[in-house]
Amino acid sequence: ISELLAPLKLEEFNENYLNKKICIFKAPVAASDRYKSLYSWEKFDNFLNNYDQIKNIQIAGIGMDGEPDKGKDKWDKGRGCKLTRDDIHFMWRAGHSIVLPFCEYQSRYLWSIVNTLEKKLGGGQCNMYCSSGSDAFTFKPHQDGTDNFLFHIEGHVKWNFYKRLRNGSLKKSNSVILSSGDLLYIPIGLYHDTIPLSPRLT
Questions:
Q1: How crowded is residue 47: how many other Cβ atoms within 10 Å of its Cβ?
Q2: 99: enclosing H helix or E strand
Q3: How far apart are CA 185 and CA 4, in angstroms?
Q4: In the chain, what is the straight-line distance between the N-terminal and C-terminal CA atoms, in Å?
Q5: Cα(145)–Cα(196) distance, rounded to whole angstroms?
Q6: Are 166 and 128 in contact (CB under 8 A)?
Q7: pLDDT in tens, 139-177
Q8: What does pTM read for this prediction?
């Protein structure tokens, strides 16, 4: 984990960031491709095209009936249902971001990273967030029940962070734009959303 956090010391991360606030690790220009080996558009394409039906997949901005639904944040058909390859192709062309869960089982390197983080933070998994362009649907502001380490493999993404007010509404507190090779830590419970500024793999 020290290698992932470098040049920040593990002790400094634990004291100042863990479970407290976001931490951004900007990649030097020369290291913008440092996460290229984690995943690729080719692997994404192979995964979606090698199976006639796929379960445990999330599509941003889709209702349970398969139609775009402003009242729904995601379509998760992991409970015994399966999406056909044609379903996914149609949604991707319509601009819906796709989340592939448990990607650590597609790559020994990803598995080793997840295993390393689990030893420090407890159980976890690797999800791959894929958006086709700057107009892609993404998830509404939300909070996660786990700490998140976001490896920006390719593309540019704007991350927005929010505070919940006493009246229950959310107020934007900060925004950052991250690019290929950047790493973002989001502590458990912090509200956030994303705006892809280009095709992206995270």
A1: 18
A2: strand 98-100
A3: 11
A4: 19
A5: 23
A6: no
A7: 999 999 889 999 999 999 999 999 999 999 999 999 999
A8: 0.87
